[in-house]
Amino acid sequence: MEAERTKQKPCPVKVTVDLISGKWKPNILYCLLDRTQRFGELQRQIPGISRRILTLQLRELERDQLIIRMAYSEPIKVEYALTEYGRSLVPILLTMRDWGEVYLARHEQQPVFMS
Residue limits of the HTH hxlR-type domain (predicted)? Predict the structure, then answer.
């Protein structure tokens, strides 16, 4: 019983960061803001991401119900889109984009760490 009383609710900020963190998840979500996309389209828009990592990140985003994977047999294709739940992240993603643009403008003359 003592363990139940001391168990804390997860921090909402940590939950959000955990769901969208990683080197590529924010980029993937941002690419899906405006439209449904196929795997190859996503890979072309995110330079440096490998097929394996893109697949893993898409699976995690689907598992967390932020995106939906739609498979069609005629013609054979797979598309990805934000779920309604994933669309609720749009204001956060747009704010991150805007903040990044301001940061880059302020630090134009200085090297920026990019991993």
Answer: 11-108
